[in-house]
Specification:
320 residues, alpha/beta, Rossmann fold, two-stranded parallel sheet, 10 strands
Length: 320
């Protein structure tokens, strides 16, 4: 899967496979998932190998698979091109979720399609079903990650003058429909700072500066307590450490929300566009819109600032 959140959801499944074989795994993942940073110190992962899903990328993947001389491979994807690549690489034991178009290329285990349409249609529940059908001990339901201690030390030194509490706001999301309006994030930031003080970190990558600029434009001119991270050159590993050091995270349904929860930071997700999904960590507290269930048409607009503030106030008061 291509995203950070996708990989965080899969972490318990990867750990379960490592336990089953009694050794760390080698993970083949797309660069956009930031797998190397996420699993840098993970005991279940010995190595991360990057690949792209382009035609040339698949040829390179075949070569990388051959160089590693793997005995067994688990394909946690329903894409037939990846199944073909694994078979062409000559991996002897090939397990997979087993969509019908993949079956000619897989030769071991039971697929989640063995009994017709699988019970689940999303990746992580399918992976858990795959573990059960192949008598592999179930995965922990809670994704769990750690930030390297030296990275956390570096973040504390970098922001030594930033007063606590540290509140991280995840103001971006890949899908525009999942984004809470930037003006409301600004209103929330102003309200939280007035009540609790501290520092507000606005999370976003450099290519998302336009979205964060809309937030900062709605803040007071002297809002030195708000830090726009899209303007920084911090490495992704430092951003992981900053999320781990934060006292609270509030954000859209996106990768940073899932990552924050996996790191153990109290995390609140804004679910106005769609109901919380089956892969959602139980560590995430979902905030739903006023006046009815989430809805693609106006659900994010019905998420009032007062409702979000009321949901997080208690957590920030505990920090203070």
């Amino acid at each position: 899967m291509p995203g950070i959140g996708d990989l965080v959801w899969h972490q318990p499944v990867l750990a379960a496979l490592a336990r089953h074989h009694g050794a760390p795994i080698i993970l083949f993942a797309r660069p956009s998932s930031h797998a190397a940073s996420l699993f840098h110190d993970a005991p279940f992962c010995a190595e991360v190998v990057a690949f792209e899903r382009t035609s040339l990328g698949l040829l390179a993947l075949i070569a990388k698979l051959r160089r590693h001389r793997l005995d067994t491979l688990y394909l946690l994807s329903n894409r037939p091109t990846l199944a073909a690549a694994v078979a062409l690489a000559g991996v002897p034991n090939r397990y997979g979720l087993g969509a019908p178009s993949q079956m000619p290329f897989l030769n071991r285990g039971r697929s989640v399609y063995d009994r017709g349409t699988p019970a689940h249609d999303t990746p992580v529940p399918q992976c858990r079903e795959f573990l059960a059908r192949n008598f592999i001990a179930p995965a922990d339901p809670v994704p769990s990650l750690t930030a390297a201690p030296f990275m956390r030390d570096a973040i504390r030194a970098m922001f030594a003058d930033a007063p606590r509490p540290w509140t991280s706001l995840g103001v971006t999301a890949t899908q525009a429909a999942r984004r809470w309006p930037p003006g409301r994030f600004a209103e929330l930031a102003i309200s939280l700072h007035a009540r609790h003080g501290g520092t507000i970190f606005l999370h976003g990558a450099p290519h998302q500066r336009g979205i964060l600029a809309q937030v900062t434009a709605a803040l007071p001119r002297d809002a030195g307590w708000a830090i726009d991270l899209s303007q920084s050159t911090m490495a992704f590993a430092h951003l992981i450490a900053l999320l781990a050091e934060s006292d609270l995270f509030i954000g859209n349904d996106s990768g940073p929300l899932n990552l924050s929860a996996a790191l153990g930071t109290p995390s609140f997700g804004l679910f106005g566009n769609a109901a919380p999904h089956a892969s959602l960590s139980p560590r995430i507290q979902a905030i739903l819109p006023d006046g009815g269930p989430p809805d693609e048409r106006d659900g994010m607009a019905r998420l009032a600032v007062a409702r979000v503030r009321a949901a997080v106030d208690g957590a920030l008061m505990q920090v203070a």
